[in-house]
Design a protein that fits this description.
Blueprint lengths: L1 H7 L3 H21 L2 H4 L4 H10 L2 H11 L1
Length: about 70
Amino acid sequence: MLELIESGGWLMVPIILCSIIALAIIVERFWALQRSRICPRNLVNQIWQWARGGGGWSICVMTALS
């Protein structure tokens, strides 16, 4: 592996640095955007119950009429 870096010359340094930065950003995004942080457990079920109960339709009608 080190032989490949040495044969690439000085141009390998920015490529490696950009790769490390990109990997850090990917790991951070996976950690920050965990499903439990974005969508609480019962949120989807509550929305479906609300929509099936007619709550969504009345909001749509009131919004369209105003």
